[in-house]
Specification:
The chain is of the alpha/beta class. It has 12 helices and 10 strands. The longest helix has 30 residues.
Length: about 325
């Protein structure tokens, strides 16, 4: 090879190294300055409702945390039982930290199991859990079951119809999992949301209603229902401390509940430095008194769980979800 060819190759090598070095420096600078452009945080439902409210409050808190004129825009990408937003984060959004999702593990996992989601768990990085949507079982105020134990004793030997907000709801899947674990003779009646479930309970069309704690608290305050059981820690969202709840009933027994929380998630290819920045922001916002008050006012729970812990629970959750989807006929 003559001298001229060697010279050209050497020049090309130098140019390539300079280009690579420049790209690395630019990338590092971009991460260091994050955020340097507006961040979008998407929810899986249309505007209005508790998830949208949390999205807006969290966006404001992110702006305050970052300071220096940072802009965080709450957005909505509803439809497909959460799969539209999950697909967008996993496959369409740029993994640069400027597209976040306020989504539930249920919204990510169920489409994977049903085959309607074009992604896997590996496509997401969970930053941390934002809130928990607590679930309860209620009965009419004049129900003959005065205690949860009375109800359990009856339901183990007699059929009991319960109303729920629909077969796609987390509440329904949690109740079905509970029924299986305790071998209860309960039959679910799918209804359209909490309002129809409440109407069915008050009209005595079903003996028990499975609904959100927020709906139940309003009915309880009006003297129309009694909360027999809470799947979540009752004092976390304003129920009496002596309300029977899952941890108390299990008494340490092995049980895999379906995680009812909304999480902050990004595409898994997001640079590690940006993920760490978002994790730090999440930790601070979860301790913010105003954010905590908003969560309490919405009758939600402040489920502090970091992303690594939440992610570690997802495979077991998927196994339970699969079984419950098969039981309900949604998955063959």
């Amino acid at each position: 090879m003559n001298h001229a060819v060697w010279k050209r190759l050497f020049c090309c090598l130098i140019v390539s190294l300079v280009f690579i070095g420049s790209a690395v420096c630019i990338s590092a600078a971009a991460e260091k300055k994050y955020p340097s452009s507006p961040i979008n945080i998407y929810g899986p439902f249309a505007a209005g409702g508790p998830v949208d409210t949390i999205n807006r409050v969290f966006a404001k808190k992110l702006e305050a945390y970052f300071g220096h004129g940072a802009v965080v825009v709450p957005q909505n990408k509803p439809g497909g039982g959460g799969s539209i937003l999950a697909s967008y984060i996993a496959k369409s959004a740029r993994p640069d930290g400027y597209t976040l999702a306020n989504i539930s593990g249920h919204h990510i996992c169920v489409p994977i199991l049903l085959g309607t989601g074009s992604y896997s768990l590996k496509d997401f990085t969970i930053i941390g859990q934002l809130v928990v949507f607590p679930s309860v079982l209620v009965v009419p105020a004049d129900s003959p079951w005065k205690t949860f134990q009375q109800f359990m004793d009856y339901a183990k030997t007699h059929p009991v119809k319960y109303g729920h907000p629909g077969n796609a709801s987390t509440i329904f899947l949690r109740v079905e999992n509970f029924i299986k674990h305790f071998d209860l003779k309960m039959e679910g009646i799918p209804l359209k949301g909490d309002s129809e479930t409440a109407t069915a309970v008050l009209g005595k069309h079903v003996a028990v209603g499975a609904m959100s704690a927020g709906t139940a608290k309003g009915l309880m305050a009006a003297g129309k229902v009694r909360v027999l059981f809470s799947f979540d820690k009752p004092t976390s969202f304003g129920l009496p401390a002596d309300t029977p709840h899952l941890a108390g009933v299990l008494r340490g027994a092995a049980y895999t509940d379906i995680e009812p929380g909304q999480v902050l998630a990004v595409n898994s290819k997001t640079p590690p430095a940006i993920i760490r920045t978002l994790e730090d922001a999440w930790k601070e916002i979860m301790k913010d008194p105003e954010f905590q008050k908003t969560v309490a006012d919405l009758n939600l729970g402040l489920g502090y769980m970091d992303g690594k812990t939440f992610t570690a629970k997802l495979p077991a959750n998927m196994a339970v979800l699969k079984e419950m989807l098969q039981k309900s006929g949604q998955l063959k």
